[in-house]
Methylmalonyl-CoA epimerase
Amino acid sequence: MILRIDHVGIACHDLEATIALYQKTFGLKVVHREVNEEQGVREAMLHVADGETGGSYIQLLEPLHPDTPVGKFLATRGEGVHHVAYGVSDVAGAMDEIAATGVRLIDKTPRHGSMNSSIAFLHPKDVGGVLTELVQAPPRDS
Ligand code: CMX
Ligand code: CO
């Protein structure tokens, strides 16, 4: 069901400063920027590597407002790793399979993610304290 680690999401207070840190430290390059009002974030995707099933990225996240998932996370835990996202070929199918194991889905239906992907979150309390995202990439020619 799981194809790869698609990205690791990292919460930060200052997106531009954190992009600069990742560029200077690791040489990673920004391949996409987006404001996602629905998720309450301003974000950047930094490319790490390409594999047979698609790319892997670091996703840097800055909250648009304090009262958003990433804003609340920063207030209580500070900057750091926010979530792990797995690439899947069929997000709705993966959601059904995982829900059948008893893990709670935060999203009942897939929603819009970075770079026109379809995403869904699993509840961290049911995944050993790790907020977990499923990502289905768009068709290659879209
Ligand atoms: N990782 C691990 N645990 C987390 C967490 C995270 N990122 N965010 C919250 N939690 C934990 C909290 O520590 C808290 O634990 P305790 O009950 O032990 O204190 C519990 O979950 C509830 O946290 P909360 O601050 O009260 O927050 P909410 O219940 O309001 O929301 C969650 C938590 C996970 C449902 C919410 O953050 C959510 O829906 N997240 C998914 C959407 C998202 O994060 N979008 C931004 C990323 C966008 C992208 O990747 O494109
Ligand atoms: Co993500």
Q: What stands out?
A: Helices lie at 15-26, 69-77, 91-99. The mean pLDDT is 96.
